[in-house]
Amino acid sequence: GIQVEQSPPDLILQEGANSTLRCNFSDSVNNLQWFHQNPWGQLINLFYIPSGTKQNGRLSATTVATERYSLLYISSSQTTDSGVYFCAVGRQGKLIFGQGTELSVKP
Amino acid sequence: DTGVSQNPRHKITKRGQNVTFRCDPISEHNRLYWYRQTLGQGPEFLTYFQNEAQLEKSRLLSDRFSAERPKGSFSTLEIQRTEQGDSAMYLCASSPSDVLSVLQFFGPGTRLTVL
User: Are B21 and B40 in contact (CB under 8 A)?
Assistant: First the structure.
């Protein structure tokens, strides 16, 4: 099956810093989503980005499908950005999740 | 609220008991998915429905697990004879069309604790 690897597994930032999270996947996919999981467990959609680049406020994402990776950029981080970020890829409907990057933003 | 809803949000049960969870997808979404997430891990796919048809089941879905979507709207996930290893967050998601690659929207989850 498709393997999804996220890096780094953990990241500690000072408020205001920028960060890049990476997602590598092992095979071609036709769906890629980035999620933020809040402390209560809710998965919040950030981006649907099987290819190309998108931006939403301080967050942006780029997927290079031919090279099988995606990047999530967080600029000017805030304490509310803390939590776990998941990349998930899909083919034939179901999503396959990576292990996540746990981000902690310190004031 | 027009998002995916799940009930109950929390369930504590004793080993050996049966439990049932409910998921109400976003209105008119014809695909519905169940995932399980254990502590420190990413969610893992369990099964999905297109309308009332169950199209795929993961090997994680043992014989003690059964999912239904009888009218193509809400879905139930039942676990029989629960074990401590079933303790996890059970997540439901829905997506809007028959196209293979579509955006999935997740509910808040049901957290199961088996004592």
Answer: no
Provide the CA B4 distance to its chain's centre, in angstroms. Answer: 11
Statement: residue A73 has pLDDT above 70: yes
User: Over the stretch B72-113, which tens digit does the pLDDT of each residue have?
Assistant: 899 999 999 999 999 999 999 999 876 655 789 999 999 999
Q: Chain A partners of B36 at a C-beta cutoff of 8 Å? A: none
Closest to B90 (Cα-Cα) out of B9, B13, B1, B30: B9
Asked if A30 lies within 8 A of B44 by C-beta distance, the reply is: no
DSSP state of A83: E
Mean pLDDT of B68-74: 91
- Chain A nearest C-alpha distance from B28 (Å): 17
**Contact by Cβ (8 Å): A77, A15:** yes
Chain B residue whose CA is closest to A83? B40
Rg (C-alpha) for chain A, rounded Å, is: 13
3-class DSSP assignment, residue A81: helix
Rounded CA gap, B104 and B106, in Å? Answer: 6
CB B20 within 8 A of CB B76: yes
Residue A52: per-residue pLDDT: 96
pLDDT per position as a tens digit, A8-39: 999 999 999 999 999 999 999 889 999 999 88
* B105 in Cβ contact with B97 (< 8 Å): no
